[in-house]
Protein backbone atom coordinates (compact mmCIF):
# COMPACT_ATOMS: atom_id res chain seq x y z
CA UNK A 1 0.00 0.00 0.00
CA UNK A 2 1.41 3.32 -1.17
CA UNK A 3 1.02 6.83 0.29
CA UNK A 4 -0.03 9.09 -2.58
CA UNK A 5 -0.90 12.81 -2.79
CA UNK A 6 -2.25 14.81 0.13
CA UNK A 7 -6.03 15.27 -0.06
CA UNK A 8 -6.38 17.91 2.63
CA UNK A 9 -4.65 19.30 5.66
CA UNK A 10 -6.74 20.10 8.73
CA UNK A 11 -5.79 21.77 11.99
CA UNK A 12 -4.51 18.53 13.58
CA UNK A 13 -4.13 15.97 10.79
CA UNK A 14 -3.31 15.49 7.13
CA UNK A 15 -5.22 13.09 4.90
CA UNK A 16 -3.50 11.26 2.03
CA UNK A 17 -4.77 9.10 -0.80
CA UNK A 18 -3.39 5.58 -1.19
CA UNK A 19 -3.31 3.21 -4.15
CA UNK A 20 -6.54 1.75 -2.79
CA UNK A 21 -9.41 4.21 -3.54
CA UNK A 22 -11.28 2.97 -0.46
CA UNK A 23 -8.47 3.73 1.99
CA UNK A 24 -6.78 6.92 3.18
CA UNK A 25 -3.75 7.51 5.37
CA UNK A 26 -4.20 9.97 8.24
CA UNK A 27 -1.04 11.65 9.49
CA UNK A 28 -1.34 13.12 12.99
CA UNK A 29 0.40 16.46 13.63
CA UNK A 30 1.67 18.14 16.80
CA UNK A 31 -0.15 21.36 15.78
CA UNK A 32 -2.74 22.58 18.24
CA UNK A 33 -5.32 25.34 17.82
CA UNK A 34 -7.92 26.74 20.17
CA UNK A 35 -10.95 29.02 20.01
CA UNK A 36 -11.67 28.28 16.35
CA UNK A 37 -8.06 28.77 15.23
CA UNK A 38 -7.53 32.08 17.08
CA UNK A 39 -4.77 30.57 19.22
CA UNK A 40 -2.14 28.49 17.42
CA UNK A 41 0.63 26.39 18.94
CA UNK A 42 2.14 22.97 19.15
CA UNK A 43 2.13 20.16 21.70
CA UNK A 44 5.29 18.03 21.59
CA UNK A 45 4.52 14.36 20.93
CA UNK A 46 0.79 14.97 20.44
CA UNK A 47 0.67 13.51 16.92
CA UNK A 48 2.20 10.23 18.05
CA UNK A 49 0.04 10.02 21.19
CA UNK A 50 -3.25 10.80 19.43
CA UNK A 51 -2.45 8.36 16.62
CA UNK A 52 -1.80 5.57 19.14
CA UNK A 53 -4.71 6.41 21.42
CA UNK A 54 -7.20 6.58 18.56
CA UNK A 55 -5.91 3.21 17.35
CA UNK A 56 -6.46 1.58 20.75
CA UNK A 57 -9.89 3.15 21.31
CA UNK A 58 -11.28 2.53 17.82
CA UNK A 59 -10.12 -1.13 18.03
CA UNK A 60 -11.90 -1.46 21.36
CA UNK A 61 -15.07 0.18 19.96
CA UNK A 62 -15.04 -2.17 16.93
CA UNK A 63 -14.85 -5.12 19.34
CA UNK A 64 -17.94 -3.76 21.11
CA UNK A 65 -19.87 -3.58 17.82
CA UNK A 66 -19.33 0.03 16.70
CA UNK A 67 -18.35 0.26 13.02
CA UNK A 68 -15.41 2.67 12.57
CA UNK A 69 -13.16 3.90 9.79
CA UNK A 70 -10.04 2.48 11.52
CA UNK A 71 -7.99 -0.14 9.64
CA UNK A 72 -4.57 -0.17 11.31
CA UNK A 73 -1.73 1.89 12.70
CA UNK A 74 1.04 2.29 10.08
CA UNK A 75 3.72 4.20 11.95
CA UNK A 76 4.29 6.41 14.98
CA UNK A 77 2.07 9.15 13.52
CA UNK A 78 0.15 7.51 10.68
CA UNK A 79 -2.86 5.25 10.48
CA UNK A 80 -4.74 3.61 7.63
CA UNK A 81 -8.50 4.31 7.58
CA UNK A 82 -11.46 3.68 5.33
CA UNK A 83 -12.04 6.59 2.95
CA UNK A 84 -15.32 8.19 3.95
CA UNK A 85 -17.38 11.24 3.12
CA UNK A 86 -17.49 13.10 6.42
CA UNK A 87 -20.88 14.46 7.55
CA UNK A 88 -20.19 18.16 8.26
CA UNK A 89 -21.43 17.70 11.81
CA UNK A 90 -19.53 17.86 15.07
CA UNK A 91 -21.40 15.37 17.22
CA UNK A 92 -21.00 16.15 20.90
CA UNK A 93 -21.96 14.36 24.10
CA UNK A 94 -21.72 16.13 27.43
CA UNK A 95 -21.90 14.10 30.64
CA UNK A 96 -20.69 17.02 32.78
CA UNK A 97 -20.97 20.71 31.90
CA UNK A 98 -17.65 22.26 30.80
CA UNK A 99 -16.25 24.63 28.21
CA UNK A 100 -18.40 26.36 25.61
CA UNK A 101 -21.74 25.22 27.03
CA UNK A 102 -20.98 26.97 30.33
CA UNK A 103 -20.28 30.29 28.63
CA UNK A 104 -23.16 29.91 26.19
CA UNK A 105 -25.88 28.90 28.66
CA UNK A 106 -24.55 30.02 32.02
CA UNK A 107 -24.04 26.52 33.45
CA UNK A 108 -21.45 25.98 36.16
CA UNK A 109 -18.35 24.06 35.05
CA UNK A 110 -18.40 20.64 36.67
CA UNK A 111 -22.19 20.36 36.90
CA UNK A 112 -23.04 16.65 36.51
CA UNK A 113 -25.87 16.35 33.99
CA UNK A 114 -28.72 14.00 34.99
CA UNK A 115 -28.72 12.59 31.47
CA UNK A 116 -26.21 13.27 28.69
CA UNK A 117 -26.67 16.32 26.48
CA UNK A 118 -26.44 15.43 22.80
CA UNK A 119 -25.42 18.31 20.54
CA UNK A 120 -24.84 18.87 16.85
CA UNK A 121 -22.62 21.65 15.58
CA UNK A 122 -22.40 22.58 11.93
CA UNK A 123 -18.73 21.77 11.15
CA UNK A 124 -17.74 24.99 9.41
CA UNK A 125 -14.85 27.12 10.67
CA UNK A 126 -16.14 30.24 8.85
CA UNK A 127 -19.23 30.24 11.05
CA UNK A 128 -17.49 29.07 14.23
CA UNK A 129 -19.12 25.61 14.32
CA UNK A 130 -22.55 26.91 15.43
CA UNK A 131 -24.94 24.72 17.44
CA UNK A 132 -27.79 23.41 15.30
CA UNK A 133 -30.63 20.93 15.71
CA UNK A 134 -32.05 18.11 13.53
CA UNK A 135 -34.23 20.53 11.54
CA UNK A 136 -31.25 22.70 10.58
CA UNK A 137 -29.17 19.67 9.63
CA UNK A 138 -31.94 18.30 7.42
CA UNK A 139 -32.79 21.67 5.83
CA UNK A 140 -29.11 22.28 5.05
CA UNK A 141 -28.83 18.71 3.69
CA UNK A 142 -25.98 17.92 6.09
CA UNK A 143 -27.65 14.53 6.67
CA UNK A 144 -31.04 12.90 6.17
CA UNK A 145 -33.46 12.28 9.04
CA UNK A 146 -32.58 8.56 8.95
CA UNK A 147 -28.83 9.23 8.96
CA UNK A 148 -29.27 11.57 11.93
CA UNK A 149 -31.15 8.86 13.81
CA UNK A 150 -28.36 6.34 13.11
CA UNK A 151 -25.71 8.85 14.19
CA UNK A 152 -27.60 9.66 17.39
CA UNK A 153 -28.06 6.00 18.34
CA UNK A 154 -24.40 5.19 17.63
CA UNK A 155 -23.28 8.23 19.63
CA UNK A 156 -25.23 7.29 22.76
CA UNK A 157 -23.86 3.72 22.50
CA UNK A 158 -20.32 5.05 22.11
CA UNK A 159 -20.81 7.26 25.17
CA UNK A 160 -21.90 4.32 27.31
CA UNK A 161 -18.90 2.25 26.18
CA UNK A 162 -16.40 5.11 26.62
CA UNK A 163 -17.75 6.21 30.02
CA UNK A 164 -17.23 2.71 31.45
CA UNK A 165 -13.91 2.23 29.66
CA UNK A 166 -12.40 5.47 30.98
CA UNK A 167 -13.85 5.09 34.47
CA UNK A 168 -11.90 1.83 34.77
CA UNK A 169 -8.83 3.92 34.01
CA UNK A 170 -9.64 6.47 36.70
CA UNK A 171 -10.97 9.03 34.22
CA UNK A 172 -14.24 10.93 34.26
CA UNK A 173 -15.32 11.35 30.62
CA UNK A 174 -16.70 14.90 30.81
CA UNK A 175 -17.55 15.36 27.13
CA UNK A 176 -16.34 14.47 23.65
CA UNK A 177 -16.69 15.42 19.99
CA UNK A 178 -16.85 12.77 17.29
CA UNK A 179 -17.37 12.76 13.54
CA UNK A 180 -19.15 10.29 11.31
CA UNK A 181 -18.63 9.45 7.68
CA UNK A 182 -20.14 7.30 4.95
CA UNK A 183 -18.08 4.67 3.16
CA UNK A 184 -18.29 4.11 -0.60
CA UNK A 185 -20.75 1.24 0.06
CA UNK A 186 -23.04 3.50 2.11
CA UNK A 187 -22.20 2.40 5.65
CA UNK A 188 -22.18 5.05 8.38
CA UNK A 189 -19.03 4.66 10.49
CA UNK A 190 -17.33 6.51 13.32
CA UNK A 191 -14.44 8.48 11.76
CA UNK A 192 -11.81 11.07 12.71
CA UNK A 193 -10.18 10.59 16.15
CA UNK A 194 -10.79 10.10 19.88
CA UNK A 195 -8.01 11.71 21.89
CA UNK A 196 -7.26 14.40 24.48
CA UNK A 197 -7.79 16.88 21.60
CA UNK A 198 -11.42 15.85 21.23
CA UNK A 199 -12.46 14.76 24.73
CA UNK A 200 -12.40 16.28 28.19
CA UNK A 201 -10.74 13.82 30.60
CA UNK A 202 -10.76 14.61 34.33
CA UNK A 203 -8.90 12.44 36.82
CA UNK A 204 -11.54 10.80 39.02
CA UNK A 205 -9.61 11.38 42.27
CA UNK A 206 -7.97 14.78 41.77
CA UNK A 207 -10.23 16.30 39.09
CA UNK A 208 -7.02 17.20 37.27
CA UNK A 209 -7.57 17.99 33.59
CA UNK A 210 -5.77 15.54 31.28
CA UNK A 211 -6.78 17.01 27.93
CA UNK A 212 -6.52 19.94 25.54
CA UNK A 213 -7.99 22.35 28.11
CA UNK A 214 -4.44 22.48 29.56
CA UNK A 215 -3.44 24.08 26.23
CA UNK A 216 -6.58 26.21 25.79
CA UNK A 217 -6.32 27.60 29.34
CA UNK A 218 -2.53 27.71 29.58
CA UNK A 219 -2.41 25.36 32.56
CA UNK A 220 1.08 23.98 31.85
CA UNK A 221 2.21 20.31 31.89
CA UNK A 222 0.41 19.78 28.58
CA UNK A 223 2.69 17.09 27.17
CA UNK A 224 2.66 15.25 30.50
CA UNK A 225 -1.15 15.17 30.48
CA UNK A 226 -1.26 13.67 26.99
CA UNK A 227 1.41 11.11 27.97
CA UNK A 228 -0.48 10.21 31.14
CA UNK A 229 -3.65 9.59 29.12
CA UNK A 230 -1.83 7.35 26.64
CA UNK A 231 -0.29 5.41 29.53
CA UNK A 232 -3.71 4.81 31.09
CA UNK A 233 -5.25 3.75 27.77
CA UNK A 234 -2.39 1.34 27.07
CA UNK A 235 -2.44 -0.09 30.62
CA UNK B 1 -61.98 43.55 37.26
CA UNK B 2 -59.34 45.84 38.68
CA UNK B 3 -55.82 46.61 37.40
CA UNK B 4 -53.45 46.14 40.35
CA UNK B 5 -49.67 46.44 40.73
CA UNK B 6 -47.23 45.93 37.89
CA UNK B 7 -45.63 42.50 37.96
CA UNK B 8 -42.91 43.11 35.40
CA UNK B 9 -41.98 45.33 32.51
CA UNK B 10 -40.45 43.76 29.42
CA UNK B 11 -39.04 45.37 26.31
CA UNK B 12 -42.44 45.67 24.58
CA UNK B 13 -45.10 45.10 27.23
CA UNK B 14 -45.97 45.53 30.90
CA UNK B 15 -47.75 42.85 32.90
CA UNK B 16 -50.13 43.76 35.75
CA UNK B 17 -51.90 41.74 38.39
CA UNK B 18 -55.68 41.95 38.63
CA UNK B 19 -58.08 41.15 41.47
CA UNK B 20 -58.40 37.69 39.89
CA UNK B 21 -55.23 35.69 40.67
CA UNK B 22 -55.70 33.70 37.45
CA UNK B 23 -55.74 36.73 35.16
CA UNK B 24 -53.18 39.36 34.22
CA UNK B 25 -53.46 42.56 32.20
CA UNK B 26 -50.89 43.04 29.44
CA UNK B 27 -50.21 46.63 28.42
CA UNK B 28 -48.59 46.99 25.00
CA UNK B 29 -45.92 49.70 24.62
CA UNK B 30 -44.59 51.60 21.60
CA UNK B 31 -41.00 50.81 22.71
CA UNK B 32 -38.94 48.87 20.22
CA UNK B 33 -35.55 47.25 20.70
CA UNK B 34 -33.32 45.32 18.32
CA UNK B 35 -30.24 43.14 18.51
CA UNK B 36 -30.84 42.04 22.09
CA UNK B 37 -31.53 45.56 23.37
CA UNK B 38 -28.49 47.17 21.70
CA UNK B 39 -30.70 49.45 19.60
CA UNK B 40 -33.56 51.20 21.40
CA UNK B 41 -36.35 53.25 19.87
CA UNK B 42 -40.07 53.67 19.54
CA UNK B 43 -42.63 52.92 16.85
CA UNK B 44 -45.64 55.27 16.95
CA UNK B 45 -48.91 53.37 17.36
CA UNK B 46 -47.19 49.99 17.76
CA UNK B 47 -48.68 49.23 21.17
CA UNK B 48 -52.22 49.75 19.91
CA UNK B 49 -51.62 47.81 16.70
CA UNK B 50 -49.93 44.81 18.37
CA UNK B 51 -52.61 44.67 21.07
CA UNK B 52 -55.36 44.58 18.42
CA UNK B 53 -53.58 42.20 16.08
CA UNK B 54 -52.75 39.72 18.85
CA UNK B 55 -56.41 39.87 19.92
CA UNK B 56 -57.64 39.00 16.41
CA UNK B 57 -55.08 36.27 15.80
CA UNK B 58 -55.38 34.57 19.20
CA UNK B 59 -59.19 34.56 18.84
CA UNK B 60 -58.82 32.94 15.41
CA UNK B 61 -56.36 30.35 16.77
CA UNK B 62 -58.71 29.51 19.67
CA UNK B 63 -61.48 28.91 17.12
CA UNK B 64 -59.17 26.49 15.31
CA UNK B 65 -58.53 24.54 18.52
CA UNK B 66 -55.32 26.09 19.85
CA UNK B 67 -55.54 26.88 23.59
CA UNK B 68 -54.19 30.39 24.27
CA UNK B 69 -53.83 32.76 27.23
CA UNK B 70 -56.06 35.37 25.54
CA UNK B 71 -59.26 36.42 27.34
CA UNK B 72 -60.28 39.76 25.81
CA UNK B 73 -59.15 43.17 24.65
CA UNK B 74 -59.73 45.77 27.39
CA UNK B 75 -58.66 49.01 25.74
CA UNK B 76 -56.60 50.39 22.87
CA UNK B 77 -53.38 49.04 24.40
CA UNK B 78 -54.48 46.55 27.06
CA UNK B 79 -55.69 42.99 27.01
CA UNK B 80 -56.76 40.54 29.67
CA UNK B 81 -54.97 37.20 29.63
CA UNK B 82 -54.73 34.07 31.71
CA UNK B 83 -51.88 34.28 34.21
CA UNK B 84 -49.30 31.70 33.19
CA UNK B 85 -45.80 30.64 34.12
CA UNK B 86 -43.88 31.28 30.92
CA UNK B 87 -41.49 28.53 29.73
CA UNK B 88 -38.16 30.36 29.24
CA UNK B 89 -38.08 29.23 25.62
CA UNK B 90 -38.37 31.25 22.45
CA UNK B 91 -40.09 28.86 20.11
CA UNK B 92 -39.31 29.67 16.49
CA UNK B 93 -40.58 28.38 13.17
CA UNK B 94 -38.85 29.34 9.94
CA UNK B 95 -40.59 28.72 6.61
CA UNK B 96 -38.11 30.89 4.70
CA UNK B 97 -34.54 31.71 5.77
CA UNK B 98 -34.15 35.27 7.08
CA UNK B 99 -32.43 37.19 9.86
CA UNK B 100 -30.22 35.53 12.46
CA UNK B 101 -30.21 32.09 10.84
CA UNK B 102 -28.65 33.51 7.67
CA UNK B 103 -25.80 35.12 9.58
CA UNK B 104 -25.36 32.14 11.89
CA UNK B 105 -25.38 29.37 9.27
CA UNK B 106 -24.60 31.17 6.01
CA UNK B 107 -28.03 30.65 4.42
CA UNK B 108 -29.24 33.10 1.79
CA UNK B 109 -32.06 35.39 2.92
CA UNK B 110 -35.22 34.39 1.09
CA UNK B 111 -34.30 30.71 0.71
CA UNK B 112 -37.58 28.75 0.88
CA UNK B 113 -37.10 25.81 3.25
CA UNK B 114 -38.41 22.45 2.00
CA UNK B 115 -39.89 21.82 5.44
CA UNK B 116 -40.13 24.27 8.34
CA UNK B 117 -37.18 24.64 10.70
CA UNK B 118 -38.25 24.38 14.34
CA UNK B 119 -35.92 26.11 16.79
CA UNK B 120 -35.72 26.64 20.54
CA UNK B 121 -33.81 29.53 22.04
CA UNK B 122 -33.13 29.81 25.75
CA UNK B 123 -35.07 33.01 26.62
CA UNK B 124 -32.37 34.85 28.57
CA UNK B 125 -31.19 38.31 27.53
CA UNK B 126 -27.90 37.95 29.48
CA UNK B 127 -26.87 35.12 27.16
CA UNK B 128 -28.39 36.59 23.98
CA UNK B 129 -31.17 33.98 23.66
CA UNK B 130 -28.84 31.19 22.48
CA UNK B 131 -30.10 28.37 20.25
CA UNK B 132 -30.55 25.14 22.20
CA UNK B 133 -32.01 21.70 21.55
CA UNK B 134 -34.33 19.37 23.50
CA UNK B 135 -31.45 17.91 25.54
CA UNK B 136 -30.34 21.34 26.74
CA UNK B 137 -33.90 22.37 27.60
CA UNK B 138 -34.45 19.20 29.62
CA UNK B 139 -31.03 19.33 31.35
CA UNK B 140 -31.63 22.97 32.30
CA UNK B 141 -35.16 22.08 33.48
CA UNK B 142 -36.70 24.68 31.17
CA UNK B 143 -39.38 22.09 30.33
CA UNK B 144 -39.90 18.33 30.61
CA UNK B 145 -39.64 16.00 27.61
CA UNK B 146 -43.46 15.70 27.55
CA UNK B 147 -43.95 19.47 27.72
CA UNK B 148 -41.48 19.91 24.86
CA UNK B 149 -43.40 17.39 22.77
CA UNK B 150 -46.68 19.24 23.43
CA UNK B 151 -45.08 22.59 22.59
CA UNK B 152 -43.58 21.20 19.38
CA UNK B 153 -46.89 19.70 18.20
CA UNK B 154 -48.81 22.89 19.01
CA UNK B 155 -46.19 25.01 17.23
CA UNK B 156 -46.35 23.03 13.98
CA UNK B 157 -50.17 23.23 14.09
CA UNK B 158 -50.02 26.98 14.70
CA UNK B 159 -47.64 27.35 11.76
CA UNK B 160 -50.02 25.54 9.41
CA UNK B 161 -52.95 27.69 10.53
CA UNK B 162 -51.00 30.96 10.35
CA UNK B 163 -49.37 30.22 6.97
CA UNK B 164 -52.81 29.70 5.37
CA UNK B 165 -54.37 32.61 7.26
CA UNK B 166 -51.70 35.11 6.19
CA UNK B 167 -51.47 33.80 2.63
CA UNK B 168 -55.16 34.67 2.22
CA UNK B 169 -54.15 38.20 3.20
CA UNK B 170 -51.36 38.35 0.64
CA UNK B 171 -48.63 37.74 3.20
CA UNK B 172 -45.81 35.22 3.14
CA UNK B 173 -45.23 34.14 6.75
CA UNK B 174 -41.42 33.91 6.70
CA UNK B 175 -40.88 33.05 10.37
CA UNK B 176 -42.22 33.74 13.84
CA UNK B 177 -41.36 33.49 17.53
CA UNK B 178 -43.93 32.39 20.07
CA UNK B 179 -43.95 31.67 23.78
CA UNK B 180 -45.84 29.11 25.80
CA UNK B 181 -46.97 29.15 29.41
CA UNK B 182 -48.62 26.91 31.95
CA UNK B 183 -51.83 27.96 33.67
CA UNK B 184 -52.46 27.38 37.38
CA UNK B 185 -54.40 24.21 36.46
CA UNK B 186 -51.46 22.84 34.45
CA UNK B 187 -52.63 23.49 30.91
CA UNK B 188 -50.00 24.47 28.32
CA UNK B 189 -51.24 27.45 26.32
CA UNK B 190 -49.91 29.79 23.67
CA UNK B 191 -49.00 33.06 25.45
CA UNK B 192 -47.32 36.39 24.74
CA UNK B 193 -48.13 37.98 21.34
CA UNK B 194 -48.24 37.46 17.58
CA UNK B 195 -47.49 40.71 15.78
CA UNK B 196 -45.05 42.40 13.36
CA UNK B 197 -42.67 42.50 16.36
CA UNK B 198 -42.53 38.70 16.53
CA UNK B 199 -43.12 37.56 12.92
CA UNK B 200 -41.55 38.28 9.56
CA UNK B 201 -44.30 39.23 7.09
CA UNK B 202 -43.39 39.66 3.41
CA UNK B 203 -45.92 40.90 0.87
CA UNK B 204 -46.57 38.01 -1.52
CA UNK B 205 -46.49 40.21 -4.65
CA UNK B 206 -43.78 42.78 -3.89
CA UNK B 207 -41.74 40.94 -1.21
CA UNK B 208 -41.97 44.18 0.78
CA UNK B 209 -41.19 43.68 4.48
CA UNK B 210 -44.17 44.52 6.70
CA UNK B 211 -42.60 43.82 10.08
CA UNK B 212 -39.99 44.86 12.64
CA UNK B 213 -37.13 44.33 10.16
CA UNK B 214 -38.04 47.82 8.87
CA UNK B 215 -36.98 49.09 12.31
CA UNK B 216 -34.00 46.74 12.73
CA UNK B 217 -32.62 47.60 9.29
CA UNK B 218 -33.67 51.25 9.20
CA UNK B 219 -35.83 50.81 6.10
CA UNK B 220 -38.26 53.65 6.88
CA UNK B 221 -42.09 53.59 6.68
CA UNK B 222 -42.15 51.54 9.88
CA UNK B 223 -45.48 52.81 11.24
CA UNK B 224 -47.11 52.40 7.80
CA UNK B 225 -45.98 48.76 7.65
CA UNK B 226 -47.52 47.99 11.07
CA UNK B 227 -50.74 49.80 10.05
CA UNK B 228 -50.87 47.90 6.75
CA UNK B 229 -50.56 44.59 8.61
CA UNK B 230 -53.36 45.50 11.02
CA UNK B 231 -55.56 46.52 8.08
CA UNK B 232 -55.01 43.16 6.37
CA UNK B 233 -55.67 41.20 9.56
CA UNK B 234 -58.87 43.16 10.24
CA UNK B 235 -60.08 42.84 6.62
N1 LIG C 1 -11.85 8.38 7.24
C1 LIG C 1 -11.81 9.65 6.80
N2 LIG C 1 -11.97 9.92 5.47
C2 LIG C 1 -11.95 11.20 5.02
N3 LIG C 1 -11.74 12.27 5.81
C3 LIG C 1 -11.57 12.05 7.15
C4 LIG C 1 -11.61 10.75 7.70
N4 LIG C 1 -11.44 10.87 9.06
C5 LIG C 1 -11.32 12.18 9.32
N5 LIG C 1 -11.40 12.92 8.19
C6 LIG C 1 -11.29 14.37 8.04
O1 LIG C 1 -9.93 14.73 8.04
C7 LIG C 1 -9.81 16.14 8.23
C8 LIG C 1 -8.52 16.46 8.93
O2 LIG C 1 -8.62 16.34 10.33
P1 LIG C 1 -8.39 17.59 11.29
O3 LIG C 1 -6.98 18.07 11.18
O4 LIG C 1 -8.89 17.17 12.63
O5 LIG C 1 -9.34 18.68 10.60
P2 LIG C 1 -10.13 19.95 11.21
O6 LIG C 1 -9.21 21.12 11.09
O7 LIG C 1 -11.34 20.06 10.31
O8 LIG C 1 -10.51 19.60 12.62
C9 LIG C 1 -11.11 16.55 8.95
O9 LIG C 1 -11.87 17.36 8.06
C10 LIG C 1 -11.82 15.22 9.19
O10 LIG C 1 -13.22 15.39 9.10
N1 LIG D 1 -50.08 35.26 30.05
C1 LIG D 1 -48.91 35.66 30.55
N2 LIG D 1 -48.64 35.51 31.88
C2 LIG D 1 -47.46 35.91 32.41
N3 LIG D 1 -46.48 36.47 31.68
C3 LIG D 1 -46.67 36.63 30.35
C4 LIG D 1 -47.88 36.23 29.73
N4 LIG D 1 -47.78 36.51 28.40
C5 LIG D 1 -46.55 37.03 28.21
N5 LIG D 1 -45.87 37.13 29.37
C6 LIG D 1 -44.53 37.67 29.59
O1 LIG D 1 -44.60 39.07 29.67
C7 LIG D 1 -43.30 39.61 29.56
C8 LIG D 1 -43.37 40.99 28.95
O2 LIG D 1 -43.40 40.95 27.53
P1 LIG D 1 -42.25 41.60 26.65
O3 LIG D 1 -42.20 43.08 26.83
O4 LIG D 1 -42.44 41.06 25.27
O5 LIG D 1 -40.94 40.97 27.36
P2 LIG D 1 -39.47 40.64 26.78
O6 LIG D 1 -38.65 41.87 27.00
O7 LIG D 1 -39.04 39.46 27.63
O8 LIG D 1 -39.64 40.27 25.33
C9 LIG D 1 -42.48 38.56 28.81
O9 LIG D 1 -41.53 38.03 29.72
C10 LIG D 1 -43.51 37.49 28.48
O10 LIG D 1 -42.93 36.20 28.53
MG1 LIG E 1 -10.46 17.92 13.75
MG1 LIG F 1 -41.19 39.84 24.14
TrEMBL record, chains A, B:
The stretch of residues making up the signal peptide is none
Q: Which PROSITE patterns match?
A: SAICAR_SYNTHETASE_1, SAICAR_SYNTHETASE_2
Q: Which residues form a coiled coil?
A: none
Q: Which domain of life is it from?
A: Bacteria
Show where the SAICAR synthetase/ADE2 N-terminal domain sits: 6-232
Annotated InterPro entries: SAICAR_synt/ADE2_N, SAICAR_synt_PurC, SAICAR_synth, SAICAR_synthetase, SAICAR_synthetase_CS
Pathway-wise, it operates in: Purine metabolism; IMP biosynthesis via de novo pathway; 5-amino-1-(5-phospho-D-ribosyl)imidazole-4-carboxamide from 5-amino-1-(5-phospho-D-ribosyl)imidazole-4-carboxylate: step 1/2
Q: Which SUPFAM superfamilies match?
A: SAICAR synthase-like
Q: Which UniProt keywords apply?
A: ATP-binding, Ligase, Nucleotide-binding, Purine biosynthesis
GO MF annotations in UniProt: phosphoribosylaminoimidazolesuccinocarboxamide synthase activity
Question: Which chemical reaction does it catalyze?
Answer: 5-amino-1-(5-phospho-D-ribosyl)imidazole-4-carboxylate + L-aspartate + ATP = (2S)-2-[5-amino-1-(5-phospho-beta-D-ribosyl)imidazole-4-carboxamido]succinate + ADP + phosphate + 2 H(+)
EC number, as in UniProt: 6.3.2.6
| Similarity-based family | Belongs to the SAICAR synthetase family.
What is the name of the protein in this document?
Phosphoribosylaminoimidazole-succinocarboxamide synthase
Which organism does this record belong to? Acetobacterium wieringae
Q: What is the phylogenetic placement of the source species in the record?
A: Bacteria, Bacillati, Bacillota, Clostridia, Eubacteriales
